[in-house]
Automatic annotation (TrEMBL):
Entry keyword annotation includes Protein biosynthesis: no
The Protein export membrane protein SecD/SecF C-terminal domain, residue ranges: 293-464
Cross-referenced SUPFAM superfamilies: Multidrug efflux transporter AcrB transmembrane domain
Nucleus keyword on record: no
Protein's job: Part of the Sec protein translocase complex. Interacts with the SecYEG preprotein conducting channel. SecDF uses the proton motive force (PMF) to complete protein translocation after the ATP-dependent function of SecA.
HAMAP family for the chain: SecD_B
Gene transcribed to yield this protein: secD
Family per similarity comment: Belongs to the SecD/SecF family. SecD subfamily.
Alphabetical keyword list: Cell membrane, Membrane, Protein transport, Translocation, Transmembrane, Transmembrane helix, Transport
Topology in membrane: Multi-pass membrane protein
Domain annotation Protein translocase subunit SecDF P1: ranges: 64-121
Protein's recorded name: Protein translocase subunit SecD
């Protein structure tokens, strides 16, 4: 009686797990979006970056690891599902972005160095209404003119440029600024960056500085005001806000600015900063500057068509393998094989539910891991069923043979699955991300197979026995010839 109650409790638990899996897969969200697919199945963008330092100094492993963490934060801000970011060699990073179609934006966000600097403007020259095709020519003219200025000193100062829409009409606004070689204040002082709007509704990026950074910014703006007074030109000092050697803005500073708040804006446009540009700027400032410069070595776009074909091929292979395993079990073990087949179907559905619940990103190697775990689950049943057949040949009743078979077979199944789990853990720790997907799904499948192959099949067979359903030796795949030989 107790065994029957235990079996009913186990099967009731299985029904609850199936119901939860069905909710996660079909009800909580559209089934097409329930399972997260990797780059090789969903399509997307793969970017290969190389880190370098100005001056030719060697990039360290620690700098590249820090760069990977910053890139990961930026990719998370893009809303990419399960990106794959890994180091290659000493100074390269490989970034896989499943589901991304705008490759240019992805490259801009993840590869931008985002080194923010604040400079006192020592001299400047501007041109308005420059046609787009003549921007480089305008910059050359401004550079030559500023090099003649007394503020310019070779090796101690440099010339940076601003390029923005012309507030007065057609063409572009181009300005050159003489600043010191090194920034008067760096982006290390940035505490946070957020999108905002000015009183006119123009989009801008608002930067909050740390306490120390606020003090530095106040001192810098006071210095700019004092230097303008010394030149006899009060209220004309400028502060250049520079991102990756490009001047974002250079507002006039007519008094020291306390409070540690800086705004990057574009007052020449009625809408302010372009929305996409502002969001990208917010992301790169929020996550911090990359410790090294990045150049793009290659950008590969994997189309959704190729991903769909790979998914279809992988699913067909998995379903064919699953079907062949079911046919084998039924052909060799008859009624036992039918029970094992039902347990495998339960296993497959629960595994899908786990993949959605965790969630696990499914890749082609991951599908291979699923197929292999199905084989592991079937192997556990085979070990137990062979033990049951041995006990039947020795003359034991089917009910006793089932009990003894599970008792004797469990140790062998446990040893084999622990060995497989150790292998999966080693693969996860030592291999690349693609192989890690294989290892994760293999490990999950092995643990789940222990439950379905041992607990669920035993509960099903126990329930059949308690209901008076007689399993003859022939229904278990034991031939009369083998029975006669055993006697």
């Amino acid at each position: 009686m107790n065994n029957t109650r235990n079996n009913l409790i186990i099967l009731g638990l299985v029904l609850v797990l199936i119901a939860v899996s069905a909710y996660l897969i079909f009800i909580r969200q559209p089934v097409a979006r329930a399972t997260q697919l990797g780059l090789d199945l969903k399509g997307g963008v793969r970017v290969q970056l190389e880190g370098y330092q100005h001056g030719g100094s060697e990039v360290t492993r620690e700098e590249m690891q820090r760069a990977v963490e910053i890139i990961r934060q930026r990719v998370d801000s893009l809303g990419v599902t399960e990106p794959e970011i890994r180091l290659q060699g000493q100074n390269q990073v490989l970034v896989d972005l499943p589901g991304i179609s705008d490759r240019d934006r992805a490259v801009e966000v993840i590869g931008r160095t985002a080194q923010l600097g604040f400079y006192e403007v020592l001299a400047f020259e501007e041109r308005a209404g420059v046609p787009e095709g003549r921007v480089d020519e305008a910059k050359r003219d401004i550079r030559e003119s500023l090099r003649q200025d007394d503020a310019y000193r070779e090796g101690k100062t440099k010339i940076l440029f601003e390029e923005s829409p012309n507030p007065g009409g057609e063409g572009l606004y181009v300005a050159g600024y003489v600043v010191r070689e090194r920034p008067d204040m760096t982006g290390d002082a940035v505490e946070s960056a957020n999108l905002g709007r000015d009183p006119a509704g123009r989009l801008q990026v608002e930067i909050n500085l740390t306490g120390r950074g606020g003090d530095q910014f106040f001192d810098l703006t006071r210095q700019i005001v004092d230097n303008a007074l010394e030149r006899g030109e009060p209220g004309t000092g400028r502060l250049a806000i520079v991102l990756d050697q490009d001047v974002v803005s250079a507002p006039v500073v007519d008094e020291p600015i306390p409070g540690g708040q800086v705004v990057i804006q574009n007052t020449s446009s009625p809408t302010g900063l372009p929305e996409q540009e502002a969001r990208e700027l917010e992301i790169v400032l929020q996550t911090g500057a990359l410790p090294v410069n990045m150049r793009v070595l290659s950008v590969e776009t994997i189309g959704p068509t190729l991903g769909t074909e790979s998914l279809r091929s992988g699913l067909i292979a998995a379903l064919v393998g699953f079907g062949l395993v079911l046919l084998f079990l039924v052909a060799i073990y008859r009624a036992l094989g039918v029970v094992a087949g039902l347990a495998l179907l339960i296993y497959a559905f629960l595994l899908w539910g786990l993949i959605v619940a965790i969630p696990v990103t499914v890749t082609l190697p991951g599908i291979a891991g699923i197929v292999l775990s199905v084989g592991v689950a079937a192997d556990a049943n085979i070990v137990i069923f062979e033990r049951i057949k041995e006990e039947v040949r020795r003359g034991k009743t089917p009910r006793t043979a089932i009990q003894v078979g599970y008792q004797k077979g469990f140790r062998a199944i446990l040893d084999g699955n622990i060995t497989t789990l150790i292998t999966a853990f080693i693969l996860f720790a030592m291999a690349s991300a693609q192989v890690r997907g294989f290892a994760v799904l293999l490990a999950i499948g092995v643990v789940l197979s222990m439950f379905t192959a041992v607990v669920v099949t035993r509960a099903l067979l126990g329930l059949l026995s308690s209901r008076g359903i007689h399993l003859s030796p022939a229904m278990m795949g034991v031939s009369k010839k083998s029975l006669a030989g055993a006697r």
